[in-house]
């Protein structure tokens, strides 16, 4: 009787295991498999796309215009990453040109964070442990005025905000991509895609032509694939190419808009106002055309310090002006003066007590 019972239980267990294996095999065989994908551009969206496509393609080639896999970029210490383009006299020698990598604020919506978590499960842990970044509560540790409304007081649910600068994030994603998916992904760096290879009779794009930037006289190389994704950023030439080669007109809308940023990295010190000091994330957006100036302070590293006045965070600080006089970058004193005249007194109070560490940078677009 006992044996009968045991074999009955074993039968049920093996049925469950078999069903599970069968289900997972079914799922994996349901995913269509293709041979080769090309991605133009190996910055954040190019790398995320590459990681995602590894499910569907056995080979992925990323063609990137900059020398992003050079030893210097891949082996930077956390401090060197922070100083990137700030202290270096000849930043282009580091092999990253064209992409605005200064400390203007970049925000990734919660959906973006979820995608990164799914594709690179170790990334967040590495950022927290290696770079001393921290996660903040949007509800309790921020004061964000968006279009004149204090956003966080109305949140019914909290959001976690990971404070990290964009450049560090990009470098760490690249390292994770190479570690996790390196066997499927080939990088062609220092090479620029110059044209699409198309079949006009079938109306298809079959590949790309690229050339090495190291030798401008070198002939272009043809590379074909089943799928081509353009991740070359906001100045992408794809629309022009598709129009010229396939007579494909993609509707576009031109917005005439001028924006000037002044940004820097600084250590926040106590202001004497405990309410301000208790908010690591603090900012106010411009609300054009009524209000053309905005500002943000976002922590990107926590630091150990013996200075009892320090709040223990390094933050990226950005001031922007839309379609109006841009904030100055010639000296910190002049910037303070400008802030006093043009922005909310809270921001002036914080800025006055902030220790600027990396020099003022400007960006206009
Ligand atoms: C002031 C400012 C603030 C911004 N704030 C935000 C923000 O808050 N949130 C946000 O999501 N975005 C923001 N952006 C946009 C930001 O640029 C993008 O979010 C981000 O850089 C997009 O990443 P990407 O990988 O698509 O493009 P990019 O980072 O621009 O990368 C494109 C890559 O393609 C490469 N490339 C270009 N042409 C070629 C070619 N022909 N062949 C091969 N490689 C090529 C480049 O070298 C580069 O590595 C901001 C931009 C600016 C200027």
Automatic annotation (TrEMBL):
InterPro entries (UniProt xref): FAD/NAD-bd_sf
Organism superkingdom: Eukaryota
Keywords: Signal
Signal peptide as annotated in the record: 1-19
Listed Gene3D superfamilies: FAD/NAD(P)-binding domain (3.50.50.60)
Name used for this protein in its record: Uncharacterized protein
Organism: Adineta steineri
